[in-house]
Amino acid sequence: MTMIEIRRPKELARLRRLALAAQGLLQAQPYGCGLAGARKAINHIGYVQIDTISVVERAHHHVFYSRVPKFKPAMTNQMLLDGDIFEYWTHAAAFLPIADFRFSLPYKHAIKSGQTHWYKTPDKKLMGELLARIRSDGPIRSRDLETNTTKRAGWWDWKPAKKALEQMYMEGDLMVCDREGFQKTYDLTERVLPAHVNSQIPSMEEFAAHIVDKQLRCHGFASLKGLTYQRRSAELRKAVKALVNERVSQRTLEQVQLSSGEVFIMETGAFERLLPRLNSRMLILSPFDNSLIQRERLKVLFQYDYQLECYVPAPKRQYGYFCLPLLYRDEFIGRMDCKAHRKTSHLEIKLLHFEQHNYDEGLVITAFVDAIIQFFHFQKCDSVSLTKVHPKHLTQRLHSALKPLG
Q1: 187 and 217 together in one domain
Q2: What is the SS3 assignment for 263?
Q3: 163, 249: one domain
Q4: CA-to-CA distance for 101 and 2, rounded, in angstroms?
Q5: Quick one: 211 and 265 in the same domain?
Q6: pLDDT exceeds cutoff 80 at 152
């Protein structure tokens, strides 16, 4: 059995670069630009999480922005309308490549058959009535149910009807065919799904192979636990473990062990691959970015302890409501809590916090300012302010550097 032992800082640094390169975070434009680049990006990274928090541009746009130059938020819905992506549940609500549609079917089947539950007691009668209406009258918006509170023929109470729609969506009878912000439009799956898309339920072996191949492609390497992150199917986890063991014995996969004891799996030879050169740019990432959503992996690889504090009571927050991780070269060196005030087109940086690092402070400040210029334009802001800085001795230099943007 092949086992690579990571003992020296240079080896760990190489592992980090492998992870970041696989996520498209080291290259200037790994997938190209604009709409075509966004299509390639999601096909590579496998999903983009949808989130409702709007203190800055929403996570599903932010993830694309971090990887695709000239990306515009409207492009996400354009891909949905064009049938390039579809909306469903992974470990959370997400956009997924349409080519992966068939791998959403096992979970849909489990919900529909009662093996697992979305809502414990779905209203089958109401679901049938709504399905018949959509079949005869066309797509229905969630807004249609919310704004028709008075009883009329063919209309239903909002909460039960909304639950019924969501249940049919989770079971696979309906798909989201359009979005206006967070107002979804549902239609029959048979009318939304492009004809060329494979809709055959995969075998457990096919599903396991899909997961292993996808995770190794988009992360560079993965732990056994990380391969099935947030997937609760014991049968699937068992199939993934069997496949990994088989590939390790065949030497198409090899294992990597860190000095802390964690073991990762990667394709044989991946550790020696030619990697992109590091550049001195900073990326402001979403808390829901694919590269850091697995917090344990993030801590082990980058020694970066990150928690999203919007779910923490305000008095207990250490860094702020919605802190954005800061990636410089191949390390997470800080975090920024900020808010886009859309009425005044102003980006307020409430806290800019840098961890202890060995980089030249002048270079870090230059990289941060370059990143902020792009970032506040992405927020449709035309000014920026900075309230609090850690460490404090950087305050004056940062205020001076940001003054032209104020």
Answers
A1: no
A2: strand
A3: no
A4: 35
A5: yes
A6: no
Number of domains the chain is built from: 3
Q: Within 10 A of 44 (CB to CB), how many other CB atoms are there?
A: 18
CA distances, 300 to each of 223, 305, 338, 356 (Å):
11, 9, 27, 17
Q: Is residue 361 part of a domain?
A: yes
Looking at the structure, tell me whether residues 395 and 312 fall in a common domain. yes
pLDDT class of 146 with cuts at 50, 70, 90: low
pLDDT in tens, 91-145: 899 999 999 999 999 999 999 998 888 898 899 999 999 999 999 999 998 777 7
The whole-number average pLDDT for the span 77-100 is 96
For the record, the structure tokens of 391 come out as 């460490």
Identity of the residue numbered 318: Q
Average the pLDDT over 249-260 and give the result.
95
Mean pLDDT computed over 181-202: 94
3-class secondary-structure state, position 386: strand
Reduced to 3 states, what is the DSSP secondary structure of residue 189? helix
Residue 156 has pLDDT above 80, yes or no: no
The type of residue at 184 is: K
Residue 170, pLDDT score: 97
Q: What is the CATH number of the domain that holds 257?
A: 1.10.10
Contact 285, 291 (CB under 8 A): yes
Last residue of a domain, one of 128, 156, 191: 191
Nearest Cα to 78, choosing from 132, 39, 52, 28? Answer: 39
Structure tokens at 188: 């029959």
Does any domain span residue 138? yes
Assess if residue 374 is contained within a domain: yes
- Provide the residue range defining the domain that includes 372: 307-401
What CATH number corresponds to the domain at position 156?
1.10.10.10
Any domain includes 210 = yes
Confidence category of residue 68, pLDDT binned at 50, 70, 90: very high
Element (H, E) at 291: none
- CATH code of the domain in which 341 resides: 3.40.630.30
Amino acid at 95: F
**What DSSP string describes 323-379?**
EEEEEETTEEEEEEEEEEETTTTEEEEEEEEE----S-HHHHHHHHHHHHHHHHHHT
- Mapped onto helix, strand or coil, the DSSP state of residue 271 is helix
Residue 244 — pLDDT band, cuts 50, 70, 90?
very high
Query: Which of these three, 191, 222, 237, is where a domain ends?
Result: 191
